[in-house]
Amino acid sequence: MTGLGLGRSSAEEAPISGATDARLSQGYWLTRFLFLRLLGLVYFVAFLCLTQQFRPLIGRSGLLPAQAFLDRIALAYGHGLSTALRLPTLFWLNSSDAALGAGCWLGLLLSLGVVLGLANVPVLATLWLLYMSFVHVGQVFYGYGWETLLLETGFLAIFLAPPWRPGPFPERSPPPRVVIWLLRWLAFRLMFGAGLIKLRGDSCWRDLSCLVYHYETQPLPNPLSFYLHQLPRWFHQGEVLFNHVVEVIVPWMVFGPRRLRTLAGVLLVLFQGLLILSGNLSFLNWLTLAVCLACFDDGGLARILPHSLTAHVVGLPTEETGARRAVVYTLAAVVAVLSVNPVANMLSRGQLMNASFDPFDLVNTYGAFGGVLRERHEIVLQGTDDERPDDRARWLDYEFKCKPGDVERRPCVVSPYHYRLDWQIWFAAMSDASEQPWLIRLVAKLLEGDAGTLDLLAEGPFRERPPRYIRARLYRYEFTRVGEPGRAWWRRTLIGEYLPPLSREDPRLREFLALLPGPEP
After folding, report:
1. Which segments within 280-362 are labelled E, that is strand?
2. How far apart are CA 377 and CA 393, in angstroms?
3. Lesser CB count within 10 Å: N end or C end of the chain?
4. Closest Cα partner for 320 from 308, 303, 332, 307?
5. Secondary-structure breakdown of the chain: helix, strand, coil percentages, each rounded to the nearest 5
6. Which residue among 365, 395, 410 closes a domain?
7. Mean pLDDT of 421-438
8. Omega before 416 cis (within 30°)?
9. pLDDT tens-digit readout, 2-31
């Protein structure tokens, strides 16, 4: 522990008295200690996903190349500072695979340092800038609320961290209370926005029936989702009521007195834990846990953390220096101004679910599952080596790493990691194939036997050589019931054709690819 700046002190040997507890309640050293480590873990997972998936998704020959995207932006708005500020990303300088890869690995190493306690302003500023650069060229694969939430949280963390000395308890750098309050403001917008989008959105949130369907139809169910789906309707109605309490009422408590604020923190943490257990929602809930830690002060956390840790903060100052106070009050003023549009959005009947109102994603609006599907539709890609691609051919399914496919395969447990292709194809099933250019390019790359693209999928057929034809079919997937004979988790029913059989030489495929920006496979 001494390597992380946790040297022993004489205070470790004495229990925390009532007077000491009162002093601890004025500080946020332990809050920052836990927050930065959990944020570091989220950053680590986010950059780990990038190292494994960036090349086939947004690399030079990926499904949606970053370079082609930047070329389109430059063509529309020109080259120059104004365009760079419209879409801020380091990859304006160089968007080669080597540059993208270097950004991934640098982010991975720095985030590991934050997990180990080596956090300061330069490290966190670099992480924020790197991840923002990837989000802004990631296109649909990075178009979700947890990406902007990580950017907003990561930006606030820059001002919470010690300026220079990396370590958990640098005596001259107490956690600024203003930033703690800004994190509470973020927690409020995050939860209350999610609650409003539900009440204004799907009628099933108002008649309390949404969770009758949600566990089966969410993007990537896990094994517990299967069992939760089996529970009676009255139980699901109670879950929805609890959801409304936590998302609509509890957020107001984060601004209340200490006991009320602590109760809010407990309920919010419990709620996020339940969401983590019931599905694979990327790192959204893990990151929300980090934000909600701002509800707790050192006095509250000292009651549950080991004394060997809490003793280090006894007697540490709680007031920041004048210079730093000026910086964080300036930050608060900036956040207040940038909050106008998100607040107006929350109050609007046409509330947007996840949206940014400034190019740097500093203050955003959030929400999730404003609509819940009643049926689960899945796109299943199939290939064949037969000469005639009709129903008498032997068609073999491509399996994805996490999304439902083989009805006997157990649902995956992957959160906080995230398979972006699996998530995106869940959305593709809600629209026509012509609206999903990345999916057409995916088929083309599979017909070419592209190794990087195959790495995005689970082990399966056509690894040695590609098929002659690939088609896509749309199925309805339903959970089986506990106690049914057989080993299947799902049953599936064919709905119809999503994409007709296509070969590498098919003129329809070539014509469509010719219209897409970036290199053809």
Report:
1. 355-356
2. 24
3. N
4. 332
5. 55, 10, 35
6. 365
7. 93
8. yes
9. 333 344 333 344 455 555 556 677 789 999
Could you tell me if 442 and 63 are in contact, meaning their C-beta atoms sit under 8 angstroms apart?
yes
Cα 518 to Cα 58, 98, 454: the distances in Å are 11, 18, 20
Q: Are residues 344 and 305 in the same domain?
A: yes
User: What pLDDT sits at residue 44?
Assistant: 98
Q: Which domain holds residue 56?
A: 17-365
What does each C-alpha distance from 146 to 67, 157, 383 come to in angstroms? 24, 16, 34
What one-character-per-residue DSSP string does 280-292 give?
--TTHHHHHHHHH
Q: Give the burial class of 452: count Cβ atoms within 10 A of its Cβ; 0-12 exposed, 13-18 middle, 19 or more buried.
A: middle
Q: Token pair of 416, please?
A: 């906080």
Backbone angles phi, psi at 86, to 5 degrees: -65, -40
Q: Do 353 and 398 fall within a single domain?
A: no
Tokens standing for 56?
A: 């086939």
Enter the pTM of the model.
0.93
- Alpha carbon distance 177, 373 (integer Å): 42
Residue type, 369: F
CA distance 285 to 213: 20
**pLDDT band, very low/low/confident/very high, at 320 (cuts 50, 70, 90):** confident
